[in-house]
Amino acid sequence: MIDSFGRKINYLRISLTDRCNLRCKYCMPGTGVSKFSHDDMLTLEELYTITKAFVELGIDKLRFTGGEPLVRKGIVEFIERVSKLDGIRELTMTTNGILLKKYAKDLKDAGLNRVNISLDTLDGDKYREITRLGNIEDVLEGIEEAKRVGLTPIKINTVLIGGFNDDEIEDLANLTVNEKMDVRFIELMPIGEAATWAEENFLSNDVVLERLKGLVAVPSEDKSSPAVYYKLPNAKGKIGIINPITCKFCADCNRVRLTSKGKLKLCLHSDREIDIRKILLEGGDLKKLILKSIGEKEESHHLEAKLYIKRNMNEIGG
User: Fold this and answer.
1) Once rounded to an integer, what is the mean pLDDT over residues 281-302?
2) What is the spatial distance between Cα 65 and Cα 267, in angstroms, rounded to a whole number?
């Protein structure tokens, strides 16, 4: 699928649920959020039908997100079914890792290729503070199990938060020295009800490059990747820098998102949504709607103008 700006759209991020077993400060307000009713969410059968249509139109990379995707019942069986679709090149998942120790082997056996794991600190007390609920040991054990069963290469996603984890940049980067693991520093994005908090705690990724001396640039293997990669001297893994605020990567965007309610988001930072589920339930031409929507994909976002979306991140899919 080619959009109106000549970009090849081959990557679909699917939010399986708005539910999460954590309450991260940059994702949702401390009081929690209003959960969708069960009837509002796509059934797994509906989700499979929509996914199949996208794959037949040229999507070859799928990422499962949430909320937390591993709290969705039937997730392993769903992934196994999707993995058999003709044309799938890569099946991945972004998870907070809390349940990964339990599910890693089953996910690998079902056809999942690898995982990205959200981890903003290596300190147990700070982890509980930023997540409001979590135990870091669960995540660390999940990482080890993912390595053991081969859900690799693992990518650690670290949201850079001023006054919180900027003193851990070196420690997090050093995870790449002895492990073939990537650590990606992501600028804090002002989204939904947490937008004001994100603005107040924003820190440019330039600080990562200033702190880590001797970094060597690594040529990108994927032009559409939002990360610019580097390596510490003699390290086995890489360090990624993702700058959605200070450096846009819209020109090479190859992705769209499907929310757990069946809404297609053509740009993460746009409030515009297309109701895919409605067309499905009405028996309409699903592929025709998808192709029409791809043709309307935004050229770029406008975060620099402080045009922030209203949805919380758990509702969209990370």
Assistant:
1) 92
2) 16
